[in-house]
Amino acid sequence: MVAGLREFALRSGDGSGKPVLDESSGEELMHVQPSVAVALGNRPVEFPGTLYITSRKLIWLSDVDMAKGYAVDFLSISLHAVSRDPEAYSSPCIYTQIEVEEDEDDDDDSDTESTEVLDLSKIREMRLVPSDSTQLETMFDVFCECAELNPEPVDEEEEEESGHNWVFSADQMDVRGGADEDAEWQISQSPTSVIGHSNGDEGLAQPMLELQINDQRFEDAEEMVHESETKDHH
Amino acid sequence: MLFFSYFKDLVGQEVTVELKNDLAIRGTLHSVDQYLNIKLENTKVVDQDKYPHMLSVRNCFIRGSVVRYVQLPKDGVDVDLLHDAARREARGG
């Protein structure tokens, strides 16, 4: 997976001009919008082209230059919106913001002006302008659908492991081992009660059955002989 | 799922969403999903200096993973209730 906007020109050989998708990973074509212009950053609009919306990414392919096309994964699209404000942009369009890896020295947008070498991975805004502006709501809805299909990937291992050792409050006991140093604690009135409530997490469900008490009153009588000479034993 | 449920209750209220890239957008909360993706209506960019081109868009969809804060209406939060619910949820209760 590539972050940010990138070039894309893989078209299928069947003459349809459609982009090649990664079917092995389940990528599907969700919507095709012909006659769409694309404006990257502050650059002038590029036209004519066709927008292909797949379950994984957006692809814009030029209708006239077979080697020109752009793609961006939905994972990299921070937000998208229908823009109809003429003050914001001359034509109604779908405005998208692309998540870019921040570079320390990269504050100004001079790279996105019309220069010879364009670094696509630095493009932060992209507008898609359909010739038919009545299509904007449909496009917006498809964008939403596809964005929902691409949540942040969850690390498999992380999800299965349940012993995170979270601490919820100051009075939470460490119920596992190490009773020696903690022996001063007043643990509970009933030594066999189960501390806390869990939904099956083994670590937390371990009941405190063994009471560790280090109280002088429970010391062996012999050690107390010198003190108890004048007292009764209890 | 706690915050998903919490945000569902806030639908219709005005919130300001601050993204991790510092952009702040104010709008009416239209809907939220389990990934905390947020849809806002009648949005306005709070600080127009950084993103002047984005003056006002009618609907916008914000990816949950890029949200830093969601600023809530003052009376939109019962802090104690939320606090207790969060603790219960963390314990799996």
UniProtKB/TrEMBL annotation, chain A:
Keywords per UniProt: Cytoplasm, Nucleus
Leader sequence segment: none
Compartments it resides in: Cytoplasm; Nucleus
Polar residues: compositionally biased ranges: 186-196
Keyword Oxidoreductase: no
Location of the region described as Disordered in the Swiss-Prot/TrEMBL record: 179-208
Segments passing through the bilayer: none
UniProt entry tagged with the keyword Cytoplasm: yes
Family: Belongs to the pICln (TC 1.A.47) family.
Annotated protein name in UniProt: Chloride conductance regulatory protein ICln-like isoform X1
Lineage: Eukaryota, Viridiplantae, Streptophyta, Embryophyta, Tracheophyta
Protein encoded by which gene: LOC104739746
TrEMBL record, chain B:
SMART domains documented for this protein: Sm (SM00651)
Record's subcellular location: Nucleus
Entry annotated with the keyword Lipid metabolism: no
Pfam families referenced in this protein's UniProt entry, alphabetically: LSM
UniProt KW keywords: mRNA processing, mRNA splicing, Nucleus, Ribonucleoprotein, RNA-binding, Spliceosome
Superkingdom field: Eukaryota
Residue ranges of every copy of the Sm domain listed in the record: 2-76
Annotated family: Belongs to the snRNP Sm proteins family.
PANTHER family, sorted: SNRNP CORE PROTEIN FAMILY MEMBER, U6 SNRNA-ASSOCIATED SM-LIKE PROTEIN LSM2
Function, in words: Component of LSM protein complexes, which are involved in RNA processing.
Protein name, per record: Sm-like protein LSM2
Organism: Camelina sativa (False flax)
Lineage of producing organism: Eukaryota, Viridiplantae, Streptophyta, Embryophyta, Tracheophyta
Gene that encodes it: LOC104738826
